[in-house]
Design goal:
- By secondary structure, this protein is an alpha+beta fold.
- It contains 31 helices and 71 strands.
- It has a 9-stranded mixed β-sheet.
- Helix 17 packs parallel to helix 21 and helix 20 runs antiparallel to helix 27.
- The longest helix is centred in the middle third of the chain and has 28 residues.
- It starts with a helix and ends in a 30-residue tail after the last strand.
- 33% of the residues are buried.
- InterPro entries: Cupin_8, JmjC_dom, JMJD6_ArgDemeth/LysHydrox, Thioredoxin-like_sf.
- This is JmjC domain-containing protein.
- It comes from Effrenium voratum.
- Pfam families: Cupin_8, Thioredoxin_6.
- GO terms for molecular function: histone H4R3 demethylase activity; P-TEFb complex binding.
């Protein structure tokens, strides 16, 4: 499915996709109804509604994680009689969710309804229905008959209604109502109405529309089934279920609840019905039909009442209450505590305090910051804190002198860095043995960490020094208490668990017992405390003795021997087997040259463009007792850090930033080809373990300046580590695991007291005995650090690189030992229950990221380091045909039995050759090639083109060209692959851009403007520019977005500037000119009136001073001459007249002089284009007056000049096919291309 995921999405709209796990109980139960729905959608009657597809999440885990992240969670299903909170049990069935997503119109939403064919089809019908306008009740009834179910009607043009229609599409039908219809349905004129049959509910308060609509009940009782029960249980309100006994249906419950439904507030009650067979046993209800009340907080039953007891109560009530009244009273009593809790939580949420560390705006906010610093014994001058505004920008607090920070930058957040002073000697190394016995749980965990550390040091000491040493105390302390024992002590123990079923079962039993013990530590507090104290003292004595013995064996030489060089090997000369045997298994680091993980990733701008908006947590080096001596530095967008890491933030470090988790866009669209996993790491066992916590953590990104470093550390989980350096240079310093005894590691395991880059052999003399490796890594090289190797690294230049942690045949046992020590029962079960095949492939090749994430390891030939094969799992095969193919069939499944070569592929050709040496005929099938001159249609979004081969291709051979060869608006790499004589285009790496040569259009201030992007803009991206760049006098920003290759300027935030008091305009009436000045501010597109006599006393009437986009103009057409002197006044050619047609205002100069009472005729078109008729302009007493009564807006006809339509970035000339009135629309299918599914409107 990864291979054709985007292609399938582009082919079908809408498309339902079931993301399923073959192990899922939900999948087994719902498979048949899903197949029924798929069959129905494939039928002729329902085919227009869409199609169904399926994705096996165990094989396509990364695609599933991106599309349906909830599927990454699997939990154990408690057995009958067990509590849901009971500790982990090995072998207990797990619950794997199944999720159905709807893809339509470029959006995705989860289907949360009942999984039955009729419900799915009803959902798709509603999702397909456009938001139409209903004029009257007759149209309303027709819509309700066609699409029964809930209906939301918008009575006002509110943006939130359209947004709600998009969010809830499919769950209910949406329509807009005319003013008459809304008035007919409600007298209060609410903005939104909700209809269920004849029942009408009104949105009466200013609340979130989506939340309000979801609170409404689509029917009196909704059906609840095991597959959709979670949608009810995740809400806070009690769930009331009518349990039908199988003889009746939900109808009986509907009648029972109908009369009290209005009184059961939707915020307090969820009403549903279910089959008693599905829920009765689970909640111990045997007397169905019955009413069951469940508390969603605990998923437990509050109470239940049988219908028999409800209708015939044992104790007769004094009043003659009806059955419904008794039901209402019982529900109110049963849910009283739950409703009180909900009210309390709602009140607490409303009055919640701001987040810790946040300071809102007040007059003394700076004083609050100083006070917070004083509580940490700090001042504004110190370096151990950081103050950020609401946008994440760092504030220079010590330089601020007043409360001059704008309110829109609040709240500010104060963050502190944690670090300790550098130790003067190695005393801190011995202090690490202190055990805090106040917290029993922490003390128990800390003791086990020290015990594990001593086991590792025992192995290290014996290998490094080869001296006899009494380690019996390690065994003795484990005998002090049954739960102080290690469940495994070495990799040999782990190997035995993997080989021996009896040993495996013993480990599982011991881990279950350990988990139960940890949950109830306090029950054995006295005995455990005594044992922990005694055991900790014994281990510390051994620790001191061990280091004393090592010091005594130390050579007389001060300081270390000359460091060894890290081997450097070309990938061309290094096989996978040699790599594992000679480096990984031996714990020897190596630098591999000649590997390429991605051509685009070498540029840091690639990550900035795709991940720039994503927040990133940064670290910095400090004198702290933390892993690698790294402490939090702050959080900001990746773009901000990329721009400043080599200038103002040179000591900040982006360290191990997960790309799959934070920015999966860097891998490109499915099938994810932008990153290549070298063959040495392609066999990662993490990728074979569905729902393994680390499966989708790597690769990760490192960015740092030449002032950043990581102190000595060991990678967590005993994983192997690789880093491919994309730019810059790094220096690495390594030690082998056997030298841990010499490196002063804290017994907690995370911190080394010895500083590998500033070594002090007087403080830490044993470090001089350790054998050190050093290596300088150049850009383009890959370094590999085997599991358990202590190492430090510093950047010699500004760098960025890609890393991976992984597990394979070289470190499986070491990694699994760590998981046993961490009591990670789920991972231990996953790696020991036989569901994962261990081993590698000799001819393993590099894999694209998508291939790596979708490998079917169950069918692979593992001929290298295959181990523990007796437990190898076999792949489950459970496919059923759906609409001519297998809905739940994986990409790698074989063709159906009985198909022939010609059945499978029509372009397969057979060559028949007769063999004289043997009877009969041999059929030799040869894949058909693609010839020069063959062409293929290439489609990307709305772009369509034909590409012709210039040279032939063999079967499976690929020709690579630029996407620009298909259309100039496309960028990237276009692949044409020959498949049995047919060219198959792959446009997954093509990206759409808006080009400067294809401008968009915007209307502002009644004028049409052409907007061309200043440079190429990626589809989905955009930019801002001032409205004044289009029309002087308008404020705000135009947001220009690239949508499918078409630039779409949004001028909705543009507003005309007002005219300030003091602005003036010169007004001339005959021989008098006056300057009129505004006495107060005048809004855009507004006017003030003034007496014409104020300019010239010979005139009467009113003149208007108009403000439009910060410019004042005068309209004197309302002035009339009242004196003999002006009655004969001419109108000079420079005089202007004012007209307004179809909302368009024009102030035009006539251009020719008119004598008094002389008039001229002008075409309406010449003044305001798009209008027919003529207007007269009369000169009356020196004032021009226009008569536009004969002007009318023009319609369109076949003679009308064509309009340019830009759809999906493609330009088409559209003409009207018939005569239309002004503002009437007509579609133009004849001239529109086949892919143009929109209607192009021609209007004036």
């Amino acid at each position: 499915m990864v291979k054709n995921f985007n292609e399938t999405l582009g082919r079908w709209d809408p498309l339902l996709v079931a993301f399923f796990d073959p192990r899922s109980q939900s999948f087994q139960e719902l498979r048949r109804p899903i197949e029924d729905a798929a069959h129905a959608l494939a039928s002729r009657n329902e085919g227009r509604l869409g199609r169904f597809a399926a994705v096996d999440v165990t094989q396509h885990s990364f695609l599933s994680r991106l599309e349906a992240p909830e599927l990454q969670t699997a939990w154990q299903q408690p057995e009958s009689g067990e509590s849901a909170t009971e500790s982990f049990r090995f072998g207990r069935p797990r619950f794997y969710p199944l999720i159905i997503l709807l893809y339509s119109q470029g959006q995705r939403k989860e289907y949360q309804g009942v999984v039955k064919a009729k419900d799915i089809l009803a959902f798709l019908r509603r999702a397909k229905e456009p938001v139409s306008l209903l004029q009257n009740r007759s149209e309303l009834r027709r819509l309700q008959r066609r699409l029964p179910g809930p209906l939301a009607i918008g009575c006002e043009n509110v943006t939130s209604f359209q947004a709600a229609a998009q969010t809830l599409r499919g769950e209910m039908t949406f329509a807009t109502g005319s003013k008459d219809l809304c008035s007919d349905l409600s007298e209060t004129n609410p903005p939104v109405l909700y209809l269920r049959g004849e029942r009408v509910k009104e949105l009466t308060s200013d609340q979130d529309l989506v939340h309000w609509l979801r609170l409404q009940r689509p029917q009196v009782l909704q059906e609840i089934t095991p597959d959709n029960s979670w949608t009810f249980l995740e809400r806070p309100s009690p769930l009331v279920i009518y349990l039908a006994d199988g003889k009746g249906t939900a109808a009986q419950g509907e009648v029972l609840f109908a009369s009290i439904e209005e009184r059961l507030e939707t915020k307090y009650y969820q009403l549903a019905w279910a089959d008693c067979k599905e829920f009765g046993d689970q909640f111990e209800v045997t007397d169905c039909p019955a009413i069951l009340v469940i508390d969603p907080d605990t998923d437990e039953k509050l109470a239940h009442l049988s219908l028999t007891d409800l209708e015939r109560p044992k104790r007769k009530a004094k009043s003659k209450a009806s059955t419904a009244e008794r039901l209402y009273a019982w529900l109110q009593k049963t849910t009283a505590e739950s409703r009180k809790r909900m009210d309390k939580e709602s009140l607490a949420k409303a009055s919640a305090a701001p987040a810790q560390g946040e300071i809102g705006w007040t007059e003394d906010w700076m004083r609050q910051v100083h006070k917070a610093l004083e509580q940490r014994n700090m001042s504004a001058e110190d370096e151990g804190y950081e103050l950020r505004d609401a946008k994440g920008q760092i504030l220079d607090f010590k330089a601020m002198s007043g409360n001059d920070l704008p309110k829109d930058r609040f709240p500010v957040r104060l963050q502190f860095h944690t670090e300790v002073a550098e130790e003067a000697d190695a005393s801190g190394f011995w202090e690490d043995w202190a055990l805090d016995l106040d917290d029993l749980s922490a003390a128990f965990a800390s003791f086990h960490a020290r015990l594990q550390h001593m086991v590792v040091l025992r192995e290290s000491f014996q290998e490094a020094y080869g001296m006899a040493m009494d380690f019996s105390s390690i065994e003795k302390v484990q005998q002090l208490h049954p739960e102080m024992r290690l469940l495994a002590s070495s990799t040999s123990d782990v190997a035995e668990v993997l080989r021996n079923a009896t040993r495996r079962q013993e480990l599982w039993t011991a881990m279950e017992r350990r988990l139960r013990f940890v949950q109830g530590l306090e029950r054995d507090r006295g005995r455990l405390l005594r044992s922990l104290k005694q055991g900790s003292k014994s281990l510390r004595r051994l620790f001191v003795s061990l280091h004393a013995a090592a010091s005594g064996a130390r050579t007389a030489q001060r300081g270390p021997a000359e460091p060894l060089e890290v081997p450097r090997v070309s990938a061309a000369d290094l096989s996978l087997q040699d790599f594992i045997e000679n480096y990984a298994k031996k714990g020897l680091p190596v630098i591999i040259t000649g590997l390429n993980v991605s051509s685009d990733w070498t540029q840091l701008s690639y990550f900035r463009e795709r991940c720039g908006h994503v927040p990133a947590r940064l670290v910095r080096k400090a004198q702290s007792r933390t892993w690698g001596r790294l402490v939090p530095a702050g959080k900001m967008s990746l773009a901000e850090f990329v721009d400043t890491f080599n200038t103002t933030r040179r000591n900040w470090y982006l360290h191990d930033w997960s790309l799959p988790n934070n920015c999966p866009d860097v891998f490109g669209p499915a099938p994810f080809r932008e990153f290549t996993v070298p063959k040495y790491f392609a066999g990662d066992y993490f990728q074979r373990a569905a729902f393994e916590g680390y499966q989708h953590t790597w690769p990760s990104l490192f960015i740092g300046s030449n002032e950043t470093e990581s102190a000595l550390h060991i990678d967590s989980g005993n994983t192997n580590f690789m880093l491919h350096l994309l730019s810059g240079r790094k220096e690495w310093r390594f030690y082998a695991r056997k030298d841990l005894i010499n490196l002063y590691q804290s017994p907690t395991g995370s911190h080394f007291h010895f500083d590998v880059f500033r070594p002090d052999y007087d403080k830490f003399p044993l470090a001089g005995n350790a054998e050190q490796y050093r290596g300088i890594q150049e850009a383009g090289e890959t370094i590999v650090i085997p599991a358990g190797n202590p190492h430090g690294v510093r950047n010699l230049e500004h760098i960025h690189g890609i890393s991976m942690n992984y597990v394979d045949a070289s470190n499986l046992e070491l990694c699994l030992l760590q998981k046993i020590w961490q009591d990670d029962a789920e991972s231990v079960e996953l790696y020991t229950d036989g569901s994962i095949r261990f081993g590698l492939t000799k001819d393993q090749q590099a894999l694209s990221f998508g291939q790596w994430k979708s490998q079917d390891w169950t069918s692979k030939t593992l001929d290298l380091f295959e181990a523990y094969g007796c437990h190898a799992a076999t792949k489950s095969t459970s496919q059923a045909p759906v609409w001519g193919s297998n809905l739940f069939r994986s990409d790698s499944d074989s063709d159906p039995a009985g198909s022939t070569a010609s059945d499978r592929e029509p372009s397969f050709r057979a060559e028949v050759r007769a063999r004289s040496s043997a009877p009969g005929v041999e059929i030799a099938c040869v894949p058909k090639a693609c010839n020069a001159g063959d062409s293929v249609s290439v489609t990307k979004g709305a772009f369509q083109s034909t590409i012709t081969l210039s040279a032939g291709l063999a079967h499976t051979q690929t020709f690579i060209t630029t996407c620009q060869s298909a259309d100039e608006a496309l960028r990237g790499e276009l692949r044409l692959t020959c498949h049995y004589g047919t060219l198959q285009p792959d446009t997954s790496n093509c990206e759409i851009y808006c080009l400067p040569s294809r401008p968009g259009q915007a209307v502002l201030g009644g004028q049409l403007f052409s907007v061309a992007p200043p440079q190429e803009v990626l589809d989905g991206a955009g930019y801002f520019f001032p409205c004044a760049d289009l029309y002087t006098g308008f404020a705000g920003q135009v947001q220009a977005s690239c949508n499918g290759g078409a630039l779409a300027p949004d001028v909705s935030s543009c507003s005309g500037l007002p005219c300030e008091a003091g602005n003036s305009s010169s007004v001339t009436l005959y021989d008098v000119t006056q300057t009129l000045t505004l006495s107060q501010d005048l809004g855009h597109d507004a006017f003030v009136s003034s007496d014409c006599a104020s300019v010239n006393s010979d005139y009467s009437g009113t003149l208007k001073l108009r403000c439009f986009a910060d410019a004042v103009s005068a309209d004197t057409s309302g002035c009339t001459c009242q004196a003999q002197a002006c009655s004969t006044a001419p109108c000079p050619a420079t005089d202007t007249f004012f007209v307004e047609l179809s909302g368009i205002q024009e102030n035009r100069a006539l251009g020719t002089q008119l004598a008094s009472l002389q008039e001229t005729t002008l075409s309406c078109e010449s003044v305001v284009p798009g209008h027919d008729g003529s207007m007269t302009v009369l000169c009356s007493g020196g004032v021009l007056q226009a008569n536009t009564a004969s002007c009318a807006p023009r319609g369109c006809s076949s003679k009308t000049p064509s309009a340019t339509a830009v759809v999906g970035g493609v330009v088409k000339e559209i003409t009207a096919s018939q005569e239309t009135w002004c503002t009437e629309t007509t579609s133009s299918p004849a001239t529109a291309p086949a892919w143009l599914r929109a209607t192009t409107a021609l209007s004036t």
